[in-house]
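sorry for the late reply, my laptop died twice this morning and i had to redo everyting from scratch. anyway the thing you sent over, i finally got around to it. pasting the sequence first so we're on the same page, its 399 residues, then the predicted structure underneath. double check i copied it right bc i was rushing
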Amino acid sequence: MSTPTSNPSPSSGHGAPERPPVRRGARVFAVVVALVIVGLLLGGLYAFRNMRDQAIANFFAGNKPPPTPVAVAEVRTETVPRFMSAIGTLTAIRQVTVAPEVAGRVVEIAFESGASVAAGAKLIQLNDAIEQAELGALQAQAKLASINLDRARDLRSRQAGPQTNVDQYQAQLDEMNANIRKTQATIAQKLIRAPFGGDLGIRQVNVGDYVGPGNPIVTLTDLSRLFVNFSLPEQALPRLSIGQKVRVLTDAFPGRTFDAVITTVEPQVSTDTRAIKVQATVGNAEGLIRPGMFAHVEVVEPPKPGVLVVPDTAVDYTVYGDSVFVVHAKAGDGGKEALTVARVPVKTGPRHVGIVEILDGLKPGERVVVSGQLKLSEGAAVSIADKNVLVPPAKLPLN
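ok and here's the structure:
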C-alpha cells in the first residue's frame, strides 16, 4: 500500500525551513504600546515643567528683595538769586602799542620784556646826536642875537641907532628860539617813555635796529582794571542801571568769580540783533584776568523769595521730560512704616549752585530721592540711608 506524498513548495527545493506568517494583530499591538510609552514620557515632562515653574514662582513670592537704600531730601522754599546771563569779552581800559613818532636808530633799550613800569619811565632811546649838535648851534646863534638886540636897544635909547636894527635883531632872536624849541621837541621824540603805568609785553626791537615812525616797539597794558563788554536783549533794558553789580566768570579760572559794576549802557539798540550793548568795569588787583579773555557774565538782580527747590541730583533729565522719585510712606507688615517711591514729572526752572528750581509738580515738605535712582522703578520699596552727603547747604550766597 502506497503512502500519499504532499506537493513540496517552490522553496522546498532549496532545503530552507518555512517562515510562519506574521499576524496583523501583533503589529497593531506594538504600535499602541509605543504610543502609550511616548505619551507617558511627554506627560511626565509636562508635569515636571509645571512643578518646576510653580516651585520657582513660590520661591520668588516668598523671597522679596530688601528695600533699596537711598538718600532723600525735602522739597523746600528758598530765596534764590536772580541773574541775567550773557557772554562777554574782556578788554583793557588802557592799552597801547608803543611806537616812535620819528625815524631813528635804536641806541638804548631801558626795559625788559614783561616788566611793570611807571608812567614816564624810559623805554627806548633813538640816536639824537645830530639833533643835539643842531641844538647847540641854535643856542649859540640865539645868544648872539640876544647880545645884538641888547646893543641895538641901547643905541636906540641914546638916539644913536635906528629902530630897524632893534626890530631885525628881535626877529632873529625869535626865530632862533623857535628853532631851538623845534629841535628840543625832536630830541624829546627820540626818547620814548611809557605814557602810563602798566605791564609791558614782548620787546620787538633790538639795539642797532633802524625804526621808522609807527613801527611797533612793545605793548603796554594797564591791568589794574578791565572792561567787560557784553550784550543783552532789548527786553532787559528796564532792569539795567549804572552801578548794578555784575559777576564775571572765565574758563581760565573755573569756580572763581570776579566782581564788576555796570559803568556804561549803550543809548542805542542794535537794529540788526535788537540787543543793547553794556560795559562793566571789573577790578583786577591780582592781575589774573587779561584782555581778550572770554567771559561768562551774570548781571545780579534782586533775589526772589519763596521758590521751591530740590538738590540738582534729584532730577532725572531725559528726552521725554524731567522727573523725580517721590518717597511715600504707608503701613507695612507688623505696623511698621513701609516706604515706596513714585516717579513724578516736574517742570524745572533755572539752576543754581547745588539746587534747581521746581516750577510745577512738587509741594513743600515732600521727600525726593537724591541718590540711588538708577536702581529704582515705579513702586519700588526703599529705605533711607543713614547719611546723605548730597544734601546742599542750607543757605546760598545771594551776591
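DSSP finds three helices and 20 strands in the chain.
thats about all i looked at so far, will dig more tmrw
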